[in-house]
Amino acid sequence: MSKLKITETSLRDGHQSLIATRLTTDEILPIVSEMDKIGYHSMEVWGGATFDSCLRFLNEDPWERLRKIKANVKNTKLQMLSRGQNILGYKNYPDDIVEKFLKNAIYEGIDIVRVFDALNDFRNFKKSIEVVKREGAHCQCAISYTISPIHTQDYYLKLIKDFENAGADSICIKDMSGILLPFEAYKLVKAIKEVTNLPIEIHNHCTSGIAEMTLLKAIEAGVDIVDTAISPLSSGTSQPCTESLALTLKGTERDPELDIQTLSTVADYFKPIVNKYVDNGTLSSKVLMTEPKTLQYQIPGGMLSNLISQMKSLNAEDKFETVLAEVPKVRADLGYPPLVTPMSQMVGAQAVFNVISGGRYKIIPTEIKEYARGKYGSPAVPISTEIKEKIIGNEEVITVRPADLLEDAYDNFKAEIGNLAKTEQDVLSYALFPKVAKEFLEKR
Ligand code: CO
Questions:
Q1: How far does the centroid of ligand 1 lie from the alpha carbon of residue 84, in Å?
Q2: Of 279, 309, 329, which one is at a domain's C-terminal end?
Q3: Do residues 166 and 362 lie in contact, with contact meaning Cβ atoms separated by under 8 Å?
Q4: How far is ligand 1, taken at its centre, from the CA of residue 237, in Å?
Q5: For residue 340, is it left (φ>0), alpha (ψ between -120 and 50) or beta?
Q6: Range of the domain at 339
Q7: Is residue 355 located within the same domain as residue 416?
Q8: Rounded distance, CA 282 to CA 242, Å?
Q9: Terminus-to-terminus CA distance in the chain, angstroms?
Q10: Which of 18, 48, 138, 263 could, after both became Cys, cross-link 112 (CB 3.0–4.6 A)?
């Protein structure tokens, strides 16, 4: 087996998971040329919530951040996370927006695009794979890992074959909830290695306390790349710590051969910055505490704490256990969607309504109706006729790829935003986050 490769996530998922994606470009830039010397396979620096956060909270142009990072990182590949047809937003966008967005991201320096879809609906990957490949970047397709009667090993292997046939350059097992158990990971990686030669990467979160054990078993099974974060931005709801893993593997055949001295310099740089976010309350001890209930209920940590606060605000804390029991039932009703954004929020809201409104599906959020209409894609198993009728009556369910129903929209967005947009990238920021981007462009 060859040396393990490491994707450093601190500049995307690390701060997204621990400090609500609040690292500024000024905090990131002074250290990236040091990070470039460490010997990482890649650095995840863009996408996910970073784009929204730049515009919404930091009064920063996310495109400018990417350009500045690229100017200082010469050796290490830059990676971004994209939600497939949702790109960096929370709904499906038309193909022309997906195309222009990814094209610009790659032009500004993204080398690897990790694409995922909340429903693992292969059709929602197609446009992204096509564009990323055409623009000469590396397209990594991620399976959103979840546990259910139908999410078997065979289910994942079939999905991986679909990715491979569509031209994926590598595969990621994306365990956003931190529920992939160590021995399961071993079996899954071994099984994937039997059916494909594509590199396999594991992305997980420490939420439930098993992430490092899972990585170690996956490494034994031959996983090619793993995601870790530099110590001050690791653990809790973030990724396992880069230095600890590098030291664990030192001198073994899977030694990632990272520059330990420079890792320590980078950690020292981030410590006071992270402490600032502890002091101002952005980093709460809650996200650092291990939450094994995540494994017990198979509910992501973030969703669990959302449910607790929702039940509090409804003065219905006594019904919390009932809601917890309702979540898996709603999930089964809806065809076992993985509990990742936006499905986790949607399933959580429906479970709360089912418990507090005195009857199941008496109150139904709009998003759940859209989901039942097929507008998010197809769930792994179809919703039963009985449940479908409860949610949308006799309305028709679409069977085409949801984005097939969306007209190209770039020209409309461009006309709408007018002179405020100076570049195609400004128009794309507006297309993804109309209100927030408009305010940003007005202030600029
Ligand atoms: Co993550």
A1: 15
A2: 279
A3: no
A4: 9
A5: beta
A6: 285-403
A7: no
A8: 23
A9: 52
A10: 138
Sign of torsion over alpha carbons 46, 51, 57, 63: positive
Give residue 353 CA to ligand 1 midpoint distance, Å.
28
Q: Which amino acid is residue 332, in one-letter code?
A: A
pLDDT at 92: 93
CA of 159 to the centre of ligand 1 (A): 20
Of all helices (H) and strands (E), which one includes residue 305? helix 301-313
Q: Among residues of the chain, what percentage have pLDDT more than 90?
A: 92
Question: Are residue 438 and residue 383 in the same domain, yes or no?
Answer: no
pLDDT digits (tens, 9 = 90+) for 136-167: 999 999 999 999 999 999 999 999 999 999 99
For residues 272 and 294, membership in a common domain is answered with: no
Residue 158 tokens, joined = 């079939």
Distance CA 65, CA 172 (A): 25
Structure tokens at 192: 């994937």
Domain finish residue from 250, 279, 308: 279
pTM over 0.90: yes
Structural domain count, the chain: 3
Per-residue pLDDT of 340-396, as tens digits, reads 888 999 999 999 999 999 899 999 999 999 999 999 999 999 999 999 999 999 999
Mean pLDDT of 209-225: 98
3-state class (DSSP) for residue 193 = helix
Nearest to 373 by CA among 391, 346, 360, 386: 391
Residue tagged 């694409």 (tokens): 115
